[in-house]
Structures are given as structure tokens and as C-alpha cells.
Write a structure and sequence with these properties.
Chain lengths: 213, 568
Amino acid sequence: MFSGRLEAQYSDSRQQSETAQLGMWVFIATEVLFFGALVFSYFIYRFTYPEQFALAGHDSFILLGSVNQAILITSSLTMVLATRAAKADQQRALVLLLSATVALGLAFLGVKGYEYAKDVAAHSVPVIDYVFKPGYRRPTEIFWCFYFVATGLHALHLTIGIVLVALLAVRAAQGAFSPSYDAPLEVVGLYWSFVDTVWFFLFACIYPLGRAG
Amino acid sequence: MSATTAGLPARHPESQSESYLGDEHSLGSWLFTRDHKRIAILFFASITFFFFIGGAAAALIRLHLVNPYGTLLQPEVYNRMFTMHGIVMVWFFLIPSIPATLGNFLIPLMIGARDLAFPRLNLFSWYLFTLSGFIALYFIFIGGDDTGWTFYEPYSSNFANGHVIAAAVAVFINGFSTIATALNFVVTTHKLRAPGMTWFRLPLFVWAIYATSIVMLLATPVLAMTLALVGIERLWGVGIFNPALGGDPILFQHMFWFYSHPAVYIMVLPAMGVVSELVACFARRPVFGYRGMCYALISIAVIGFFVWGHHMFTAGISLTSAVVFSLMSFIVAVPSAIKVFNWTATLHNARISFDAPMLYALGFVGLFTIGGLTGLVLATLSADIHLQDTYFVVAHFHFIMVGGTVSAYFGGLHYWWSKITGRHYPEMWGRYAAILMFVGFNLTFFPQFILGYLGMPRRYYTYAPDLQTWNVLSSAGASILAAAYLLPLGYLTWSLFFGKRARANPWGATGLEWRTSSPPPAHNFPHTPTVTERPYRYDPRDGSFTTQDGAHFAEPAGLGLGLGAADV
């Protein structure tokens, strides 16, 4: 994926690049359905148990969620600027912007880890360490179950993204990319934006919608 | 017959090393190959293995049901046996069957490409499949799982005694293999078509695999998420689907069938593609209503996403949604019926050659029609109350899956066998097996319609003694069917070593896959072909044909006499 060599099944590098991008779009389509199934079932329970979900939602840390939202939006910006830098042949800016994207991704994971630690301290881990406060019933535990599954899967996707962008940064430092060859940047950029978009939906479900009502 | 009547000159034995099979012989050259044709062979080996594992489970079930009091298997073992049969046959045979083997082999050849778009991803897909296969074997050997292939909640999370998580992990990983293959097919069809290969010049097999891949891409991730939630629930005891803990078991059924109903179309659409190729070639006529066939495939793929509720009529969904799902199920039958009528119209007044692939294809058309029509009976709300969870349902979907898909799979395997291996299978044995399979199949499954109508529930290890006659008939049919499946295993293996060598185009067919040698060289074509013709340009008057790259040939001698193989 990161080698600029033309593979046997393509007639030119433009076809190869377009094919790689279409491949990522198709992959994103399957990912939409993957996370879509989770968000859909979250909403089923959100409508079945509105009061209980509101109670549980109040125990989530909206400040940390919002900070992470800001971090990821910024990382999308640096990723897009990196792609643009490659098109303009600004090699130094390209390496810096990719490194910034990696740093922002790691910052997100750091904040998320801190948030998990606070969740554990607040006894919000289903089954393993969950304390029902007065008025809390079973559905609050389901809320936290969705919280950990959804944010965990998102963190896994983001970790993969960080590794990919870091690899791109190394290749960029070696001068691998040019205005005529930037397909890997486009493909990984699509993936990065998708992972950010997933967080938009998870953020909305968990923090504001979780505590509304 | 002269060697030039049907395309390229015969391949000389000494030039065999130019084929994809002869290039290298080491194990590593297979395990690390990126050639779509070799990967197709790897998949073929894997799914053949699982076909016989799943078949063995089916054989034990039928043997057990000879006696109404069921003395052969313990009740728990019986439950594990039908679960294993379902899981293995659905995910480890039927879903990958035609796409991962014939699709992998033929899609690049048919569109005039040198390989699939992402060869490494293609190989990775086989490794994922193999990994999931090992996990499946592991869960079978440590004692299996008794939930049925449907993993219904809350039984699967709280009450099942078997190894539900191992089974779910196997299916979960298997799903990623499916997605990887489907992604490759979609992108390849969009981007790697040869010059002149427009969408409406694509063979119907390519259309069918394309439609199937779309369904795989959009349905499989939902199954992955559903099984992940089941696994989490079973592991930690949270109540996502368990009503005792606030969960909703009906939600599980919705999510499961959102995948598993479209999965039926994943299994049968490729078979329709194969049959379209076969019917046109052996009737020596263009497929009737080619564009209608394309639109029908896409319609089935799309409408198939909105009928899942017909599996849940008696599960407690509202009458409104039941009526809507019933209506949608009737609507999805329309494009399927269009396809059956078009195949029939293609055969009308044609000079049909009854070679083995055609016998399988004709078997498909008849059995699929019965399977489809009984589907309408089940989609009728009032009738479903009576027939839900009886052997009528079992017979219905086996007519589609086994009578339909497996017949077409064997038909395609025989049709393209010479292209894949460079050798001919023995024609008379092929016909004999095709007829035996048809007879065995009908004897096995037709009595099950009657059993279901009489009220025999599925998945019970005993039944009322007065139903024994029909059960014995069904089990007798199953033994014939087993013999019919073992036959090709024998003579196809034999043909690998002793079969007559094949020319490029022994059937006189029009697709691009026949415009390269048998077996094809590593990158398929010496030169990328240019497509000038629509597919299936068979002339019904004199049997001559024009290939998609514009070459015209006289009728191939020997077709219809079983000599196509013999005199080469």
C-alpha cells in the first residue's frame, strides 16, 4: 500500500490510485453499518428507558468528551492540510502535519484513558464494578455497556489510524510522496476522517443526548 | 474436430509450465500467492472440506430420524449436531461457495483483467477464512454448541451449555473474510474492466457476484456487531438482549435477521449468475431479456434488505409490521420470477444440449421454482402461523440452498472445470451424478414438505410414530444424495490426473474467460482483450457464436453428444 510501485493488474498509476480510494470508500460503507447497528440498538434502549438512560448519562464526563471532540476535529484539519501539502510538494510541512495528526490522536487516547480511570473510580463498569445508586435500575447498566463497547471499538479504530499515519510520516520523511504520488495519503486521510465522524455520533449519543430528558 | 473451431489452438503438454498451475510447485508458492486463480483453488479446498463436515452432521441427523424415538444420538448431541450442520453449511460452505471459488477465479477473466484489484487482501481473506475454520473445528471438537445456527437470545447468552462464544468468534472472523472478498469484487468490477467492457456487456455471472458483494458488504457488519454483543453478554452477564436484565430479545432477532435474510440472497444470487451462463451456452441462444436479468439481480439485492421480519411473524412483532414484511416478501418474489421466466424463455424452441452442467442448471431452475413458491406460502401471514418452525420451513429453504445453490455450484464447477484444471471430467459420470443428485434431493426434501404440513416441528429429536414413513423416505433420499456428492469427489479427482486435456474453449462459449488457454497463464491474457460485443452472442439458427472480443466461430462439434470432452 505504501510502495509507489505499479502492480500488474493496473494499466497506470492513476488507475491504481483511484482504485485504492474506491476500496477505502467501500470499506467505510461496511464500517457505517457496523457502527450503525450499535448506534441503532443504543437508540432502541434510549427510547425504551428514557429516564434511566438520562440518569446514567449524567454520570458521564461531558467536559472530557468535549475536549476529545475538539482534539479530533483539529486532527482532521491537520490530516487534510497534510494531504494538501503533499499536493503542493511542501515536504517539511507534510512531515510536520502528519506528526501533529499522530500527536493529536495520541492525545485523544490519553484523555480517553483518563476518562476511563474516572469511570472506574465512579463504579460505572457494568457487572465487574457497578454500583446502583438510589433510583438506578438495570437499564443504567445497559447504558454503560454501550458506552464501553462503542468507545472501546472507536479507540481501537483510532489506534489503527495512528499507526497508519505514523507509517505515512516515516515514509514522508524519506521523501516518498510527491504531487504525482499521494494516493496513500488520500486513502488514510479518508479513514481518519471516518474515525473522526464516528466520534461525532458517539459524542452526541453519550454525552448530550445521554443526559437530556 | 479441428483444433481451431473453438478458439485458440490446443495447448501442448510441454508448454504446460506457462499456466498458473505450472509456474511454481512449492508449498510456499501456493500459501503466499497473490494470483486470484490460485486463491480460488485454496478456497475450493477449504470449503470442500467443510462441505463434507457439514454433510456428515446432516447424515447423522437423518440416520437418527429413521426411528421416531431417536436412539442413535442423545438429545443434547442431536442439538449440537444440527447446530454444527447449520453453522458449517451456512458460513463455511454456502456463503463462500460460488463467490470465493468460481467468483475469485472467473471475475478477472470475465472482465478481461489481469487480477483482482487487491491481490494481497484476497489472500488475507483466505487466511481469515482458514483461521475462522480452525476455530470452528475447535468448537466442534471441544463439544459444540446447541443454540442452532441462529444463536437466539436469551438462550444463547444465559442457558446454552455449549461453546457459544467459540462459535460466535468463528462466525465473526469468517464475516471479515466475506467482507474482504466482497470489497475486492466491487472495486474490481468498477475499476478493472477491459476496454469496451461496459456495464451492459458484463456477463450475468459478474452482475450476480456484484449484487451479492453489495449485500455482503452491507449486511455482514451488522451480524458482526450482533454476535459481538451476544459474546459480551454471555461473557460478562450484562443484559443487552436478556429480558431478565432489561434487554430486548426481539431486538436480537431483528438484528440477526437483518443480516441473515439478505444472507439467503448472498447464497442464491451467485447461483442465478452461474445458471444464466449455463442456460445460454447449452441452449445456444442469448439470454432472454438480458437487461431485465441485470435489473432483477439488483432489485433482489435491494428489496432483500426489507423482508427480514418474515422470520419473526410469530415472535411478537406488531400486526402492522407483519403485514408490511409480508407484502415486501411477496414483492421480492417478482424479480425472482422474472429470472425464472427468462431462463424458460431462453430455452423455448432452443436446441438444447444435455451435458452435465446443463443438467445441473435445469435442476436448479425447477428446484428453485419450488423453493420460491413455497416461500410465498410461508410469507402468507395466516399460513405461517401453522407452518412456522415445522419441516415445511426446512424443506423450503433446502430447496433454495441445496436444490438451488448447490446444484448451480456443481453445474458451474463442471462447466468451468476444464478452464480451471486444464482437464476434462468424464462426461457420462458427470451426467450420472447430476441425475442422481436430482433424484436424491427430491426424495430427501419433498417428504419434508408433507411432514411440515402434518405438523412435525423442526429441531426435535423425536416425532410422532405415524410420521415414520415420510421420515424413512427422507433418510433414504439422503443416502442417495450422499452417494451423489461423493461421486464428483471421486471422478473430478481422477480427472486431475487422467482427464483428457482441454482446449481453450471446449463448450464454444462467448465469454472472455474462454479466450485464454486452459488453464490460463499467470496474468490471464497475453494481451488485454478489447470488448466489442454484448455477451451471449449465440446464433440459434446454426449454433455459431461470436465471442465478446468479436471473433466469430462455427458451431463446436460434439456438443450435446457428450463428445465435447472425448475427442480433444
